[in-house]
Design goal:
protease; alpha+beta; 26% helix; Peptidase_M1_dom; single chain; metal-binding; four-stranded antiparallel β-sheet; Aminopeptidase N; Immunoglobulin-like; disordered N terminus; Neutral Protease, domain 2
């Protein structure tokens, strides 16, 4: 949500002074009239879309307030081609005096808005819902905004993400900037908040969302399901699944509740894959520490998205990833670990800006590759050498890992390029080569512990790496993260990066939320599916090859 700073700020109360000159009654009246006219002028000025100035998505997020919680209610009509009735309530604390509140919301009909229980005026500006409360909001005050609206699962022309229509209902894929196509919000990962979802669906449907269930209520032929998070969450990680689903429960490490959501008819066929999750969680915990949330699970959707996505506590996967015989088992398992590792890197520790997304994808790709090395004998060094060969081409096409180029017009998720997947994992490999394995592993554990349930930046990573290693790594890491050319690889002076001007024309690149090795998947690796022109074989692509798509 975005709140517009008031034209005139309240002055702080001053201490009484015996020497302060008195103001005449006529002078007071003149000053009051002047202040009123300024306020009226500000209120009557045209509403404008605002943003927090993110380099890649300048109009995402809104200044002037910090969201503490969202309470979102959806009523599913029983068909996924009709709008859902919805109510979104936002509790926030203002960080400035505000005449208006800007919320990100761009795909639905707003029926009414209340601020602190009072009706408020509203209009749209760009992709913002601009709300004018009955009374201005003062800096440091708590406010509650309730928006009654519709949430349309049918995408408008030129829009990407939000609701995903499955064969039996709906799911969500909001990365990077699509949560505001589903509900009004402050749609930027820097403003994490607690979430509660209430979803009403007809008899026969099952609803699952982020967090843990807190109960169900039946009214006639409909059931309302309620879920609540126990940790703050970025809007891009919200997940609601509505469908004819089976919810399977099992125990993970230390009794962690693991729940998976699959199409009821495919329960038995998918069970062997689901059984792998507890051991994968234990493997990740052995690398970076205790799982950071209250539950975890896999949502296998009957939909063609072209990507997998790390929605918090319930990662989204296409069902056909697990049923397509062309995908090797080791590859599927590594993709599962890619999305699982995001729960630490990207979900618990979220990027402060979208230019920091390499911290999400580089780490997820790293642990995907490390898992493949340790469990399927796919050498990490081979993948990294291939990535080094392609690195200059990736930097030329998409920018350095920590300075990615903006999205292509009309393709907002095109920021998910190889430079933030294998290109960013290559940075981590270089860092491990430079400081040694023990210090690198200490850094990884310290990173997720120090920034748990918060946000962090590239500068934070460089600072912590220097602290843990005991020496200033700013020059070393800035070269790897920001330079147009790939620096020499420590320990491998023979590695060469191909001349991007002579490399073959790049094939299809990862797209969509968290694209993975399959064409259109957000997860790591250069292994693609039958949907692309590449064979599913090695986890590393040759220069110019199509990249897997995972997010």
């Amino acid at each position: 949500m975005l709140l517009t700073p008031r034209a005139t700020r309240r002055t702080r109360t001053q201490s009484p002074s015996r020497t302060r000159p008195r103001i005449s009654r006529h002078r007071k009246a003149a000053l009051l009239a002047s202040a009123v006219s300024v306020c009226l002028l500000a209120a009557s000025s045209p509403a404008q879309p605002l943003g927090i100035g993110d380099r890649l998505f300048p109009y995402l997020g809104n200044p002037g307030y910090d969201v503490a919680s969202y309470d979102v209610s959806f009523t599913y009509p029983g068909t996924n081609d009709k709008p859902l009735q919805a109510v979104t309530t936002i509790s926030a604390k203002t960080t400035a005096d505000l005449e208006r509140i800007n919320l990100d919301f761009a795909h639905g009909t707003v029926q009414s808005v209340e601020v602190d229980g009072h009706p408020a005026e509203f209009t749209s500006a760009g992709e913002d819902l601009v709300v004018t409360p009955e009374h201005p909001l003062s800096e440091g005050s708590w406010t509650r905004i309730t928006v009654k609206h519709t949430s349309d699962p049918v995408a408008a022309k030129g829009q990407e993400g939000g609701w995903v229509r499955t064969t039996d209902g709906l799911a969500m894929a909001n990365q990077a900037d699509a949560a505001h196509l589903v509900f009004p919000c402050n749609d930027h990962p820097s403003d994490k908040a607690m979430f509660t979802f209430h979803v009403t669906a007809p008899k026969g449907y099952t609803v699952v969302a982020n967090g843990v269930p807190t109960g169900t209520e039946q009214a006639g032929s409909a059931t309302t399901w309620t879920y609540r998070t126990r940790h703050p969450m970025a809007t891009e990680l919200a997940q609601v699944s509505i469908g004819h689903s089976a919810v399977l429960h099992r125990a993970g490490p230390r009794g962690l509740a693991v729940r998976d959501v699959v199409p009821s008819a495919d329960r038995k066929a998918l069970q062997p894959w689901l059984d792998k999750t507890p051991a994968q969680i234990a493997w990740m915990e052995s690398k970076v520490g205790t799982y950071p949330f209250e539950t975890y699970g896999v949502l296998m959707a009957q939909a063609s998205t072209g990507f997998e996505l790390e929605t918090q506590t319930l990662s989204l996967f296409e069902k056909d990833l697990f049923t397509e015989p062309a995908y090797p088992k080791w590859y599927i398992e590594s993709i599962m670990v890619h999305e699982l590792s995001h729960q630490w890197f990207g979900d618990s520790v979220s990027p402060r800006t979208w230019s920091d997304v390499w911290l999400n994808e580089g780490h997820a790709t790293w642990y995907e590759a490390l898992y493949a090395e340790e469990t399927a004998h796919r050498p990490m060094v081979d993948r990294m050498k291939a990535a080094y060969t392609a690195s200059d081409g990736w930097r030329a096409a998409g920018g350095p890992p920590a300075l990615p180029k903006a999205a292509a017009p009309g393709q907002k998720i095109s920021i998910f390029r190889p430079n933030i997947y294998d290109g960013a994992a290559l940075v981590l490999y270089a860092l491990r080569q430079e400081i040694g394995k023990p210090a690198f592993e200490q850094l990884e554990r310290a990173w997720v512990q120090e920034h748990r349930d918060s946000t962090a930046s590239t500068a934070d990573f460089i600072r912590l790496a220097s602290t843990v290693s005991g020496r200033d790594l700013s020059g070393f890491l800035k070269g790897w993260l920001y330079d147009e050319k790939t620096p020499p690889m420590p320990g491998h002076p023979d590695w060469k990066s191909a001349d991007p001007t002579k490399a073959p024309k790049a094939g299809r690149q990862p797209s969509g939320p968290g694209a993975s090795p399959r064409a259109g998947r957000k997860s790591p690796g250069p292994v693609t599916s039958p949907k692309s022109s590449r064979k599913v074989s090695d986890p590393v692509a040759s220069p110019g090859a199509a990249e897997p798509q995972t997010r």
